[in-house]
Amino acid sequence: MNKRVLTWCIAAAIAVSLGWIYLDEEGTLVDPPMRSIGALEFADGVLFAGDSVGGTLYALEVGSAGTAPDEFQAVSNLDAKIAEMLGTTSSEIFVKDMAADSKSGVAYLSIMRGGGNDAAPALMKVTPDGQVHHVDLAQVAYTRHDLTNAPDDDPSERRNPRSMTITDIELLGDELFVAGLSNEEFASVMRRVRWPFASASKATGLEIYHGAHAQYETHAPIYTFLPLVLDGEQHLLAGYLCTPLATFSVEEMRGADRMRGKTIAELGFGNVPIDMVLLEQNGEQYVLMTNSRRGTMKIPMSDIRAAQSKPSIEQEVGPRTGVDYEGAPLGLVVQIDKLRADTLLILERMPENGALRLSARPSEWI
Amino acid sequence: MTAAATLIAAAVSTGCADPPADKPELRFVGDSETGWYVELTGVGAGEPNLEIYTGTPEQLDGQRLPVIGRLTLDRGVARWRPRYRLAAGQTYTAVWWRDDDERLVRAFTAPRRDGAATTVVRAVYPAVETVPENLLRLYVQFSAPMSRGRARQFLELVDADGNVVSGAFVVPEQELWSPDGDRLTLFFDPGRIKQDVGPNLALGAPLRAGQTITLRVSADWPDGDSAPLAEGFERTWIVGPADRSRPEAADWTLSAPAVPEAPVELWLAEPLDHALLERLITVESSSGERVHGRSLVSDGDRRWAFTPDEPWLPGAYLLRVDPALEDLAGNSLSRLFDQPFDAERVGTPAMAPLQLPFELDAGAAR
Question: Which pTM value belongs to this model?
Answer without folding.
Answer: 0.84
